[in-house]
Amino acid sequence: MEEPENLNIHALTEMILASYDEEPSIIRIEAKNPISSAAVADLIVNLRCLVFAGFFGQKRLKADSIEYYAGELLEELLYHLQKQISRALRQVRTEGWDAIEESGRIACEFLARIPQIRHVMATDVEAFYDGDPAAFSRDEIILSYPGIYAILVNRLAHELYLLGVPMIPRMMTEQAHSLTGIDIHPGASIGHHFFVDHGTGIVIGETTEIGNYVKIYQGVTLGALSTRGGQVLRGVKRHPTIEDHVTIYSGASILGGSTVIGEGVVIGSNAFITKSVPERTRVSVKNPELQFKDDGQKRNVEFPQGEFWDYVI
Predict the structure, then answer these.
(1) Would you say residue 73 has pLDDT above 50?
(2) pTM for the full predicted model
(3) Strand order of the sheet with strand 195-197?
(4) Which of 9, 46, 68, 251 minimizes the number of CB atoms within 10 Å of its CB?
C-alpha cells in the first residue's frame, strides 16, 4: 500500500469505494426517502411544546389563542409524523400495503394519546417537586431538569414503540440520551410519579418494568445479566421488574429478567443485585474499612455496622 503522504484524491477515492463494496451493510445507495434524524429532533421539539404548552417555543401563549396554538402544532406534527413513520415502515416492510394510510392511522392514534401522556407527566413533575428540596418551583423543573426531559421523550417514544413504529422511538430516546446522559430504552414500561434525581449515568433496558412512585438516583443500571446470546434474546425479558414505591440510590445495579424488586424496597448505593428482593426490605452494602494516613501513621476508622446509609446529593 502506498504511503499516505503519496496518495492523491483519486487514490483515496478508490480506497473508499473499495471499502463500500467490502462492507455494503453500512451504506445506503439509492435509498428512497430515508428517515431524517433532524426531522425526528424537530418532532421532539414540537411534541414538547404541545405537552408543556406555553413553556417552550417562540410564541407567547394567550388564553384566546390556545385553540389555534394547539391546532397549528397538531397539524404540523401530523404531517411530519406521517412522513417519518411512512419512511420507517418502508425500510422494514415489503410491498403490498398502503404506506400513506398505515402511517396516517398510526400518527393519529399516537397523537390521540397525548392527553394521557400529559396526565402522567404532570404526576412526574409532582414527584420531582416533592422529592427534591432543591427544586425552586414546578416551572424550574419543566424548564431545566434533564430528568423530566428524558422521561418525557421516553413516554412519547414508548407509545410509538407500542404502536409498532421501527427505529424512530430509539432515535428519539438516543437524542435525549446524548443531551442528558440518561439512557432509557423506549421499550421500558414506566408507571406514574417517576422521579430520577440528577439522572446522569442511569441506564434502563428494553424489557424493564417500573411501577408507580419509584425514585432512582444517578448511576443506576437496570440491565440484563448477559447479552451474549445476541439476537436470539430478542423479545425475551432480560431486565428487572421494579414494583411500586421503590427507591434505588446512586450506583446500584439490578440485573436480570427474573429479578423482581418488591413494593417498598429501598436499595442502597452501589448494591449489585441479581436476585429478587421481597417487599419492604432494605438492601445496603456493608461499610468498608477506611484507612486514614497522617505523617506516615496509618489509622483504621471503623463505622458502626448494621446502619443503613443512603447516599443523596
Answers:
(1) yes
(2) 0.86
(3) 195-197, 215-217, 247-248, 266-267, 282-283
(4) 9
